[in-house]
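Researcher: Please predict.
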Amino acid sequence: MHKIKRPINNEIKIGEKYRIAHKGMELYDAELTNYDGGCWGTVKVANILDSPNAKVYKEGQTFDIKVAMYEFFEVPAEELK
């Protein structure tokens, strides 16, 4: 499992891929496809991580999330799909 450092929620950018976690649990790697700096952003799942919630997500799935409820982390290029 990737050792997450610090969330970069204040620095997220459309078109970039991030490891997304909720309450300290890493869920998936996803591309941020829409975000205007407000509460909501749209992500496209690129890689599902092993977690109790893994069956909830599908690669390629796109959905809106409330950005403040999640942590966004940089992921080393070798770990991105």
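Model: The radius of gyration is 11 Å.
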